[in-house]
Amino acid sequence: MINIALFGPPGAGKGTQSSFLIEKYDLFYISTGDLLRKELAEETKLGLEAKSIIAAGKLVSDEIIVQIIEKTIKENPQANGFLFDGFPRTYIQAYILEGLMIKLNTSLNCLISIEVPEDESVSRLLNRGLTSGRLDDNELIIRNRLKEYEEKTLPVLNFYKEKGNYVSIDGNKEITEVTSQIEEIINKELSKKLMNVVIFGYPGCGRGSQGMELSKKYGLEYISTGRMLEEEIELDTELGRKITQIYENGELVPDEIVVPLLLQKIKNSNTAKGFIFKGFPRTLVQSYILDGILKKHNSSICKIIDIQVSTLELISRLSNRSKTTHCKPYDTDTEKIVRRLKDHEQKTIPVLDKYKEIHDVAIVNGEAPFDVVFERLSAEIENGFKNLR
Ligand code: AMP
């Protein structure tokens, strides 16, 4: 999710630029001015309350703004990200926006201030007034709007300067040149975003082999907690010996062991474009841990994939593997395999159910040749990349 606010005096070109940006980045557009004009046209209670204020070129109250913004955001829970135009316009509204973003478990990436000299604003608005039919596009009211901007809206910039997510651009240029400046900023923001994929599926569904190949194809870091534990065993560390004991008892390795290893791995991959998680989260507790870890990196899960394979096929694949040199310590006999499948059913399926409530979980049929499943998974990951944009 990417959230951007366009800032600038009336006539800076926020509306014009927005129409390009919402298309290119698939953002949901929220213009408080448009929303108010809609309320006005429909003669709602809010619209009638705001009418005389808008006509005088004054700012409507923060109470009215919070109501229309909250309603619009609530009505669009699937939005890929928001583009705000004309909001926040007061210091209070900057705080309101912070609160709204927290509620959505996201944040404002940046506020882009389009700078235009006052005379240019006036002449553009007078020109627009010839065709816009807007009551407030006349010289007297334009001057009032600019005065309100100067007094109440400009101080908002300090809020974002202090936060460090403010960027200014020169708006006194050709439309296309202004668009390029904005695109450059948004592309930079996007490149900071991590693409995080979680692959679910019962043991034996192919999560590991597919996950590793996908990570190579998309330049993501493959994180398999199982693999990390195996490495400890191979290195015959003290931790490794403890893990062997746990495996022999057919139990899940406790979070006190898994989480520090995971944190270390993420810390060491600080140049990765994102992560593919396999075998984590395995329990509801671990799902909260993962959310917390990603949040700390200002990130979140972008794509969840569930690879589905029938139980008979799973047992057949796992017992075949147990007869090869790839045999895992936790898959040495059928009893252990069945226990692992049951464990998955009891502990991990509830995690997937939790995610299904808040994410679009992609279901991929894993009963096909490797390459076919790989293509299916690639298509889902590419969808996830699109949503990131
Ligand atoms: P705009 O279309 O953004 O130029 O907004 C037109 C008018 O709507 C403004 O002059 C204000 O009266 C009102 N308005 C729009 N957005 C806000 C806001 N965030 N806070 C207060 N008033 C607003």
Structure characteristics:
389 residues; Rossmann fold; 2 domains; 59% helix; binds adenosine monophosphate
Write a structural description:
This protein is an alpha/beta fold and 389 residues long. The protein is built from 17 helices and ten strands. A five-stranded parallel sheet has the order 2-3-1-4-5. It has a five-stranded parallel sheet with strand order 7-8-6-9-10, sandwiched between helices. The mean pLDDT is 91. The longest helix is centred in the C-terminal third of the chain and has 25 residues, at 334-358. The protein is elongated, with a radius of gyration of 27 Å. The protein folds into two domains: 2-27 and 79-191, 3-Layer(aba) Sandwich (Rossmann fold); 195-388, P-loop containing nucleotide triphosphate hydrolases (Rossmann fold, 3-Layer(aba) Sandwich), CATH 3.40.50. The structure holds adenosine monophosphate (AMP). Adenosine monophosphate (AMP) is lined by residues 10, 32-33, 36, 53-54, 57-60, 65, 86-87, 89, 93, 136, 145. Adenosine monophosphate binds at residues 10, 32-33, 36, 53-54, 57-60, 65, 86-87, 89, 93, 136, 145.
